[in-house]
Amino acid sequence: MNYFKKIFRFAGPYKIYAVLNIISNIFYALFGTLAMVSLFPMLSVLFDNTKQLNIKPIWTGIGDAKSYAENSLNYFVTQKANEGVDDVLIFMVILVITMFLFKNFFNYLAMYFITFLRNGVLKDLRNALYKKTIELPLSHYSEKRKGDTIARITSDVLEIQHSFLSILELIVREPLTILFTIVAMFLISVKLTIFVFIFIPISGFIISLIGKSLKRKSDKVQKEQGNFLSILEETLGGLKIIKGFNAETIFSNKFEESTKNFYTFSNKLLNRQNLASPASEFLGISVIAVLLWYGGQMVLVEQTLQPELFIVYMGLAYNILTPAKAISKASYAVKKGNAAAERILEILETKNTIEDKPNAIVKQTFDNLISIENIFFKYNNEMVLKNFSVTIPKGTTVALVGQSGSGKSTIANLVTRFYDVNQGEIKIDGINIKDLTIHSLRSLMGLVTQDSILFNDTIKGNLLLGKETASDTEIIEALKIANAWEFVKDLPNGIETNIGDSGNKLSGGQKQRLSIARAVLKNPPIMVLDEATSALDTESERLVQNALEKMMQNRTSIVIAHRLSTIQSANLIVVLSKGEIVELGTHQELISRKGVYNGLIEMQSFE
After folding, report:
1. How far is residue 221's CA from residue 264's CA, in Å, rounded to a whole number?
2. Range of the structural domain that residue 152 is part of
3. Nearest Cα to Cα of residue 164 among 129, 230, 233, 114
4. Do 44 and 88 belong together in one domain?
5. I need a labelling partner for 243 at 20 to 30 A (CA). Which of 445, 455, 479, 596 fits?
6. How far apart are the first and last CA of the chain?
7. Is 530 helix (H, G, I), strand (E, B) or coil?
8. Three-state SS across 320-381?
């Protein structure tokens, strides 16, 4: 229950619905008991066992409540009988119908109010999970499976939603129904009720044994669901490669293995869960059977209990079975919900390692320079950057070159603070970027990556990520600077054209030019270009390169280079090897040295 209690804080904004649900459940439990008790006067009339009473009874205190109730009923029936038997029967039928009507009316109200609570918690929980998902640093997802995160936001949250209904029944409705019923049973016969309660704890203990391992089994089911969702997500993302390498069978086997595990775990969980209801019903009927024998003795042999009261008593005893079964099922649902809550809270309580300091500085302008001072960084155990230092004055272009794994892209990740350095400092205008708000730091930067990350939206929708308030004129101007307007204007709906999932309706060059247009529209003082042309053909590269040159004019740029054409005009070229600077200089200076850079040029291998 510990995890589940933490989830309850999301119910705060909807507490009025919880209160109304509880009130409705109290009346439901009350009228549920009265509905059964109301059968007694009806049966009394039918069996003609109503005692003739012409003097109105007098209330003498709570200790005599049972006698007072019986005498009042007998007095009322006697008065009505004097008017005619039909009137008595009609009144008794109306009384029974009214009690059942109120019971079901309050049942509907209870379900009505809890709907707002359940769906409200569902909404807020999903919003909190999504917010946390996008707040957590990239490092959090380097070893996580996307499908597992999706499973937690979808199926685990739904499990919590169902458990919310169960736990309110567990706390209010069913216990109150049992309580009111027991009070009525005691009023009818103390001796018989004590006899019943010798057997109820025994049956309760047997039922509790069934649910011991539910949480563990539920956790396995939820983890496996996350696993096959991950396989599905990877399959959809890499369908071209799967088909190209005839790997359909490999992925089908992986998916089938996961669904087979899910099938096995689900069967074990559901079979254990399904055992709860029939087991509790059988044990309840066993109690009823013993009750029939013992109560029958009291009616037929001892004659200490009226037959009609015994029939009502049997109805009340059976009335306990339904809430007892509900409590049994609800307790299992809570165990399943607790396992889901644990997985959800694992995300919500994950500490964000990259966040604003208290009183972090909001920086709105870039005035002088970026200085990277003696930084060291490692992703896991292996050091990726060692003692790296470079100064980037405002308005200059610095290119980072080197073979794959040399640490080029890591610089881009550190400057934008997707990761934090292990040692050293990165400063903008002399202020450590850790002292700036993350929002203001990234507002100063535009990012164009090797992979054109676009979304299933219109061209306009994708570009508005750069500047939310941009007009259509500003969007078209940005597209022109990025050499993208030439193909956008020919599209059926222009900037309102949907580009499909990940922009798959466009070519690689077109997607990259839209990425550049998005950065242009943002109009930041600092541009970070992470191998922006490496995945393009020669013609697309020429158009993109031209767009990049126009975009970089009068801006400070950090260019992670793949091809020679990208970096010839850079003010400073930094050559990296195994995380360390091996050469520094302009293109001509480095060529003349005949060193590492010259070797890379000859191989045309800026990876």
Report:
1. 9
2. 2-348
3. 114
4. yes
5. 455
6. 52
7. strand
8. HHHHHHHHHHHHHHHHHHHHHHHHHHHHHCCCCCCCCCCCCECCCCCCCEEEEEEEEEECCC
Q: Tell me the C-alpha distance between 70 and 93, whole Å.
A: 18
Task: Identify the three-state secondary structure at position 393.
Answer: strand
Of 336, 340, 295, 331, nearest to 315 (Cα)? 295
Residue 573 half-sphere exposure, CB side, CA atoms within 13 Å? 27
526: nearest Cα among 601, 427, 456: 427
Tally the domains of the chain. Answer: 2
**pLDDT tens profile 404-430:** 778 888 888 899 898 899 999 999 999
The owner of tokens 């272009």 is 397
**Among residues 554, 574, 543, which one has the least CA distance to residue 411?**
574
User: Strand, helix or coil at 156?
Assistant: helix
Closest CA to 30 of 138, 111, 102, 121: 102
Looking at the domain assignment, is residue 531 inside a domain? no
Residue with tokens 């010839």: 568
Neighbouring residues of 237: CB distance < 8 A, sequence distance ≥ 6: none
388 neighbors 375 (Cβ within 8 angstroms): yes
The two counts, helices (H) then strands (E), for the chain are 24, 10
Which residue, 302, 303, 299, 323, is CA-closest to 312? 299
- The answer to whether residue 461 sits within a structural domain is no
Determine the Cα–Cα distance for residues 534 and 516; give it in Å rounded to an integer: 14
DSSP designation for 523: -
Does the pLDDT of residue 386 top 80, yes or no?
yes
Q: CA-CA distance, 506 to 502, in Å (whole number)?
A: 9
Query: Which amino acid does the sequence have at 390?
Result: V
Q: Are residue 329 and residue 371 in the same domain, yes or no? A: no
Residue pLDDT, tens place only, 243-265: 766 778 878 888 888 888 888 88
Q: Which helix (H) or strand (E) holds 602?
A: helix 596-603
Q: Both tokens of residue 433?
A: 């970027």
Residue 464 inside a domain? The answer is: no
Read off the DSSP letter of residue 299: I
pLDDT band at 104 (very low <50, low <70, confident <90, very high): very high
* Per-residue pLDDT tens over the stretch 336-350: 777 788 888 888 888
- Helices 190-210 + 307-348 axis angle, to 10: 30
Is 398 strand, coil or helix? strand
| CA-based nearest residue to 317, from 209, 177, 207 | 177
Six token digits for residue 15: 């507490």
Q: Whole-model pTM?
A: 0.73
For the beta carbon of residue 19, count every other beta carbon within 10 angstroms. Answer: 12
Contact predicate 452/511, CB 8 Å = yes
Please report which confidence band the pLDDT of residue 606 belongs to, taking 50, 70 and 90 as the band edges.
very low
DSSP state of 52: P
**Alpha carbons 587 and 568: distance in angstroms, whole number:** 6
- Residue 178: closest CA among 167, 166, 190, 186: 186
Asked if residue 602 belongs to a domain, the reply is yes
Pairing of strands 445-448, 431-432: unpaired
Residue 229 scores a pLDDT above 80: no
Q: Is the pLDDT at 329 greater than 70, yes or no?
A: no
CB atoms within 10 A of CB 500: 13
Residues 337 and 361 reside in one and the same domain: no
- Mean pLDDT in the chain? 79
